[in-house]
């Protein structure tokens, strides 16, 4: 009898331990996976937004530097008024023609903006350096340097944005069906890149 009670006790203990250490339910596993995917999805979206905002900030700094150079040129009175007005007008147009995350799907929009902004950077820098007082005008020299640095950072920011957008696109491809449950309002479209992967 003792053996029977002992055997039943061991069997009952084994059943209880088995129930406590069993696999988690399928519902719990599914919930954990969706939580993890939600976190990744939101992190990727934030990463794209942050890199985009940094790029736009530097582009705005580039435009401000161009405006500041024009202001300094106006103060020195060593620039033709008609040329000054033309350059100022073209700078003002940059905000109007600048691409957005949606319009950059059309590469012509990006190319038009790049052509307009790059030619302004070149023309304004050359104009500033050509005036007689440039050699001793430290303010103008610093502004031209600031413009060039902001211009150089644009390519770095675009590469950073492309890396973030590419990671987002790959994540969307791999998890599209589950992501519709996470964010029903999202279109889950791939984001355009500045540079194609093959380049």
**Roughly how much helix do the residues carry, as a percent range?**
over 70%
Globally, the shape reads elongated
* CATH fold-level assignment: de novo design (two linked rop proteins)
Q: Kindly report the oligomeric state of this protein.
A: single chain
Q: What's this entry about, in short?
A:
With 199 residues, the chain is mainly alpha-helical. The protein has a single domain (33-182), classed as de novo design (two linked rop proteins) (Up-down Bundle), CATH 1.20.1440. The protein is built from five helices and no strands.
Q: Can you put this structure into words, describing what you see?
A:
This protein has five helices and no strands. It is elongated, with a radius of gyration of 30 Å. It is an all-alpha fold and 199 residues long. The chain has one domain (33-182): de novo design (two linked rop proteins) (Up-down Bundle), CATH 1.20.1440. The protein has helices at 2-20, 26-76, 81-97, 107-130, 138-182. Residues 4-8 and 10-15 have low confidence and may be disordered. The chain starts with a helix and ends in a 17-residue tail after the last helix.
Please describe the topology of this protein.
Blueprint lengths: L1 H19 L5 H51 L4 H17 L9 H24 L7 H45 L17
What descriptive keywords fit this protein?
199 residues; mainly alpha; de novo design (two linked rop proteins); 78% helix
């Amino acid at each position: 009898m003792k053996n029977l009670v002992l055997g039943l006790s061991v069997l009952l203990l084994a059943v209880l331990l088995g129930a406590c250490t069993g696999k988690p339910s399928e519902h719990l596993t599914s919930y954990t996976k969706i939580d993890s995917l939600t976190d990744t999805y939101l992190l990727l979206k934030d990463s794209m937004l942050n890199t985009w905002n940094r790029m736009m900030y530097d582009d705005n700094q580039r435009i401000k530097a161009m405006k500041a150079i024009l202001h300094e040129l106006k103060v020195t009175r060593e620039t033709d008024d008609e040329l000054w007005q033309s350059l100022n007008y073209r700078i003002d147009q940059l905000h109007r023609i600048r691409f957005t995350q949606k319009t950059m799907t059309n590469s012509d929009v990006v190319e038009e903006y790049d052509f307009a902004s790059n030619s302004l950077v070149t023309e304004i820098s050359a104009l500033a350096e050509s005036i007689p007082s440039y050699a001793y005008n430290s303010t103008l020299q610093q502004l031209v340097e600031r413009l060039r640095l902001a211009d150089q950072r644009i390519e770095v920011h675009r590469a950073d944005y492309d890396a973030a957008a590419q990671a987002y696109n790959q994540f969307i491809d791999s998890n599209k069906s589950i992501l519709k449950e996470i964010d029903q309002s999202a279109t889950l479209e791939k984001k355009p890149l500045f540079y194609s992967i093959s380049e």
